[in-house]
Amino acid sequence: MARKDELEKRRQRNQLVPSACGGCVLKRPPFDDEYYYQSLDTGSLKNDIIIEILKRLPAKSLLRFRAVCKSWCAFISNSSHFSRKHLSHAVTDSSSFRVLYSLMPPLSVDCEALLKKDGPVQGRKLKLPNRYKQHRRTTGSLKREVANIVVGSCNGLICLLLKWGYVVLWNPCTRKVNKLPKQTHVKTHQTFYGFGYDSCTERYKIILGDMPSMPKTLAHTAIFTTSWRNFDDVQIHNEIYGRGCLLNGALHWIESAQWDAIEDDHSGPSRLSIISFDLAEEKFQKLVSLPSLVTQDTSAKVWTSRDSIFVCFWNGTVRTETKLTIWEMKEYGIEDSWTNVGHISFNSHPECYWPLKFFEDGNFLMTICGGLLVYDPEKKTIRSNSDLPILYMETLVSPFTS
């Protein structure tokens, strides 16, 4: 009885107050996880049993189950403890992974469907939240407003840099979006960027940076945790560009040039390295050198899959037959653990490509010039599906999480 009285008092403290937009907002933060757990209506079954069942279901199914009753709706929608339990299971379930391959309009495709079907796979059109429909009046097109850069993906959240310098966290599954405070120094065209989760502080972090124009000068970098912080005392001795891939609490890039080598005017091509940014310590460092075949004269990409770092690069030139060679770092941070896991032959060198995922059965998912390709190493066949590839999971993680 005392427990019920305590819950009722907590309900009353969370009074609704009028908001500026004419609706109502909570005066205090939502109830804690204990409240949602105790109020979960599960009939004769114990709550723990129900939770163990629910966490194994796809996120889309759980969103439909919010209609069962009010307590289920509140628990599935608001319990951060349950969303973490569901996430821990989703990362091991291959059916939860999807590829966002277009933003105009937003389209995604199921990774498993790409492997099972021989022909093209129909993409799912994603719905953007209503709060962004107002931009149609001023810009004339929501498509131009939505995203200029896909900063990264982590735990089902996709980080987007909008055209006007705003950054948003978007969960395509729940359709929730958190628009972050504008950073005055953020440009819409960043030279390097990344998004990840710092398990030490249990916070998501965003990094946006511009490479300096001269060697050994300071890079302009901004980091967001709970607010934007300028991080301008970073001296980078290696050029890095594009989206950093996340693994073991760090973002990773392949250096595109070595300034020390450029200044020394080496006659031969230099061996490149993987540069990492530790999200907890907020430091750049050289992780390992790439395989000796990867030099400044090759076009190389880095990505993470199956808890490993992969690198692929081209041999050959644009006008001759080329071979895409794939290497895996079997042990994180150990240079001697680089292992050649295969190659794919093409008739020409594509100008734009991006690796996405290495499946357990050896199939390799990548994009070339905007099209999705699945390569089967046993059959040596390529299936195409049809500019913006990023892998994400369907989860219940809220973009409003710290």
Automatic annotation (TrEMBL):
Residues 39-85 form the F-box domain. The keyword Transit peptide does not apply. The chain crosses the membrane at residues 146-170. It comes from the Eukaryota. CDD domains: F-box_AtFBW1-like (cd22157). InterPro entries: F-box-assoc_dom_typ1, F-box-assoc_interact_dom, F-box-like_dom_sf, F-box_dom, Gal_Oxase/kelch_b-propeller, SCF_F-box_component. It holds the Pfam family F-box. The keyword Calcium does not apply. Keywords: Membrane, Transmembrane, Transmembrane helix. PANTHER family: BNACNNG10540D PROTEIN, F-BOX PROTEIN CPR30-LIKE. This is Putative F-box domain, galactose oxidase/kelch, beta-propeller, F-box associated interaction.
